[in-house]
Amino acid sequence: MLAASASQPFLEGPAPHAALRAGVEDSVWEAVILTRDGAVFGFSADSRRACLRGPDGHSGCFVPPEPAPR
After folding, report:
1. Strand duo 59-62 + 29-34: pairing
2. Which residue range is the domain that position 8 belongs to?
3. What is the C-alpha to C-alpha distance for residues 21 and 15, in angstroms, rounded to an integer?
4. Pairing of strands 40-45, 50-53
5. Tell me: the pLDDT tens digits for 31-53?
């Protein structure tokens, strides 16, 4: 998802504010991403946008790519 969306500009607005709800249409997925250099990023995504929050507190959102066909 991140590689496919790397060329997109960030969207306006804050990250989704919802508790993790898995298995329903309006699910919000949350993760912590650790990079090789030790940086820690927060990640959250719902059906409309995915957002990253950097270790410095800055964040940005983008439209997630369409799911791959099964």
Report:
1. unpaired
2. 2-62
3. 15
4. antiparallel
5. 888 888 888 888 988 878 888 88
* Number of other CB atoms surrounding residue 64 within 10 Å: 19
Residue 13: inside a domain: yes
Helix-then-strand count for the chain, H and E: 1, 4
Global pTM exceeds 0.85: no
Q: Mapped to the 3 state alphabet, what secondary structure does 13-44 carry?
A: CCCCCCCCCCCCCCCCEEEEEECCCCCEEEEE
Q: Residue 2, SS3? A: helix
- How far is 48 from 28, CA to CA, in rounded Å? 10
CA–CA distance, 34 with 21 (Å, rounded to integer): 23
Q: Residue 58 domain-assigned?
A: yes
